[in-house]
Amino acid sequence: MQQENRIELGHCDFETGGRPLYAILRVPVTRERSCVQQSRPRRSQLQLSDTCFRCHGPDKNARMADLRLDIREQALKQTASGNRPIVPGRPSNTPLQSLVLLNDPISVEAARVFAQDILQHHRDASLAARINLAFERALSRKLTPAEQQILTELHQKNLSQFRSEPDSAAALLQIGEAPLSRDLKPAELAAMTTVTRAILNLHETIIRN
Amino acid sequence: MESTSHIHRRTFLNRGITGLGLLGLNALLDPRLFAAGLQTSRGVINPFHLPAKARRVIFLYQAGGPSHLETFDPKPKLADLHGKPMPESFTKGQQLAQLQGKPLICYGPQHAFKRFGQSGTELCELFPHIGSVIDEVCIIRSMWTEQINHDPAHTLMNTGSIIASRPSMGSWVLYGLGSEAEDLPGFVVLVSSGKGGQMQPIAVRQWSSGFLPSRFQGVKLNSIGDPVLYIKSPEGIGRQVQSSSIEAINQLNRVEYDAVSDPEILTRIAQYEMAFKMQTSVPGLMDMSQEPRSILELYGAQPGDGSFASNCLLARRLAERGVRFIQLYHRDWDHHGGVKNNVAIKAQETDRATAALISDLKQRGILQDTLVVWGGEFGRTPMSQGGDGRDHHIKGFSFMLAGGGIRGGITYGATDELGYAAVENPVSVHDFHATMLHLLGIDHLRMTVKFQGLDARLTGVSGEVLHKILA
Predict the structure, then answer these.
(1) pLDDT for the residue numbered B197
(2) pTM score
(3) What proportion of chain B, given as a percentage, has pLDDT over 90?
(4) I need a labelling partner for B262 at 20 to 30 A (CA). Which of A19, A179, B252, B293 fits?
């Protein structure tokens, strides 16, 4: 009967192959930013929050068994009973994961903040230098000329698209809760967001080795 | 860090093997193959080993262990012995689950059986709709399995092994034959739960591709809410920006593949392409507004309710779109208690929809090349558990097959007079797999993949094709 009582990965099955998005993006989820308190739907985490976080989340008073599943380290650690609450599966490689990494608001927000950071802190840098900075920050290596060209073309194509469609740029930049820097040109930020979004979706970024 | 351009010997060899795939092209041109009447597939089985009768599989997986004694296997003798001790000759030394060491009391079938169709096949009267299509159907009454707990039994039924990490049958079939669906995954999984309220998990590894490349894994669509999360592009990202972004991502991944030759990167590229196609195809797949009222009523489906019935209708739509392997899990069949009422609930949930799927496929002319399977991971004991339930049981249970090369209107095999053990033509999980592959044009002995030094196959080291159930 132990089989039936055990918490399986399938129990908290989310389409990033069992890895919370915060684990994939390697950003810590702090108490302030855990999903339970988020007002907008971020479903890849909400699936966990709906079923698990109420009793195993940030609320100290509601917490059961002194177990938190909103913190990756605790969720994976062996408990007193000898079981592990969550056992990560094989890294996912499905179209469902692609859609999450491309379209989930938290992914888009991460790309936007990433782009914002590059533009704000490197105001005088060339486009090539900015793309290189973003790439190096995500992948810890310089990009090759071929890679540079692919991302530059993506940027140019999307920049003209967003310049001709300012509403689209505005809509894209509104995604997420992180403050938006108003001093950047929306079309430029939106175009750079598509570049950082592409970088955050690369196989090399998602997979560690 | 420099990006590496070193290619490992093994990777190089793998690349060589990919190159060998081109040899399959020659098969297309070989006149002998045409003469033999064998088709070519889009997978590694080229040409087909055997003439294929079925092109796709719809597996209606009843998870939890349906009682054969209240579905497809009539046992009047068990009714006679109701309340009396189970004869020890049946159970002595046998593996039991929760009844181990407990007094074993016969528990008669809780619902009457009736004859249906021209074949006069006996079915539990709770399944009149299946009864109405019984002449399309073959009931196997002599299934047996090796595993008495759910998860390992699921694993055996899906992968032919109890060791997790083997490819599931859907992955094998997709690997062997490829997909005919251009814009949907070739192996799709749908899960529904019933009113029984049991929420036993079905682990995602049940549709894993194991040691096969991960592009052959099953893709689960959600039955409730959005079938696929984030199927829409973000606000402000139009089709052009999305398309150019995915193109750039795939170009960059291709650059990495050229440097490191990790085949997982090829899967990644394929999945991003598929994701983009699914952004268009999934809304069309899910748009039930084109389904006439009569069809919704036939299935008893209310689109979007996440029911087994809705999933059956969706299965037909997936089949029409060329999806190779469609697996529906319907949960809540684990009736340790209250088997009488609980099976009645399950019958309500599954009987009409199962029959509707079979007749709908038939009226569209695709039942003849669609293999429909209905069954779970094991059966249930003829002995009572707790006075009104049945325990897990591995020695005998029933399966139902229809379509794609199956002889309709027959039963195959039998359990003993109390429904305990399969005694006539016992059918193992490997026998079932061998037969399924046979119908798809694959010789189960010849579809092998080198793994841990062995030529691994879905059927392990056994498996006999059940020729008597073939049309």
Answers:
(1) 76
(2) 0.84
(3) 81
(4) A19
Q: Which of A4, A93, A194 sits opposite B264 (nearest CB)?
A: A93
DSSP B113-164: EEEETTTTEEEETT-HHHHHTGGGEEEEEEE--S--SHHHHHHHHHHSSSST
Confidence category of residue A64, pLDDT binned at 50, 70, 90: confident
Reply yes or no on whether the pLDDT at A25 is more than 80.
no
Average pLDDT estimate for A11-30: 34
- The answer, for B471 touching chain A at a CB cutoff of 8 Å, is no
Contacting residues of B for A161, CB less than 8 Å apart: 238, 240-241
Q: Kindly report the average pLDDT of chain B as a whole number.
A: 91
> Alpha-carbon distance B106 to B220, whole Å?
40
Distance from CA of A61 to the nearest CA of B (A): 27
Span B211-223, pLDDT tens digits:
998 899 999 998 8
* Gap between the terminal Cα atoms of chain B: 62
The mean pLDDT of B308-321, rounded to a whole number, is 97
Residue A196 CA to residue A173 CA, distance in Å, equals 13
Q: For residue A11, what pLDDT is reported?
A: 30
Q: How big is chain A by its Cα radius of gyration, in Å?
A: 19
Q: Considering only CA atoms, which of B334, B333, B357 is closest in space to residue B346?
A: B333
φ and ψ of B245, to 5 deg:
-65, -45
Amino acid of residue B210? G
Read off the pLDDT band of B274 (50, 70, 90).
very high
Q: Please give the pLDDT value at position B23.
A: 39
ipTM (interface predicted TM): 0.82
pLDDT at position B165 is 85
Select from A86, A98, A151, A207 the residue whose CB has the most chain B CBs within 10 Å, as the one to mutate to test that interface. A98
Tokens 């079932």: give the residue: B432
Report which of B265, B258, B250, B253 is spatially closest to residue B4, judged by C-alpha positions.
B258
Q: How many beta-carbon pairs below 8 A join chains A and B? A: 166
Distance CA B444, CA B463 (A): 8
Which residue from B59, B65, B55, B116 is spatially nearest to B374, judged by alpha carbons?
Answer: B59
- Please, which pLDDT band fits residue A48 given cuts at 50, 70 and 90? low
B154 and A CB contact within 8 Å: no
Q: Chain A contacts of B238, Cβ < 8 Å? A: 161, 165, 168
What confidence category does residue B248 fall into, taking pLDDT thresholds of 50, 70 and 90? Answer: very high
CB contact under 8 A, A96 and B215: no
* Contact with chain A for residue B425, Cβ under 8 A: no
pLDDT band for B284, please (50, 70, 90 cuts): very high
CA dihedral over A105, B266, B264, A153, signed as positive or negative: negative
User: What is the C-alpha separation between B290 and B363, in angstroms, rounded?
Assistant: 17
DSSP A114-152: HHHHHHHHTTTS-HHHHHHHHHHHHHSSPPPHHHHHHHH
Distance CA B192, CA A208 (A): 35
**Cα distance between residue B354 and residue B349, in whole Å:** 9
Question: Is residue B419 within 8 Å of B144, Cβ to Cβ?
Answer: no
Q: Which amino acid appears at position A86 of this protein?
A: I
Contact B252 A147 (CB under 8 A): yes
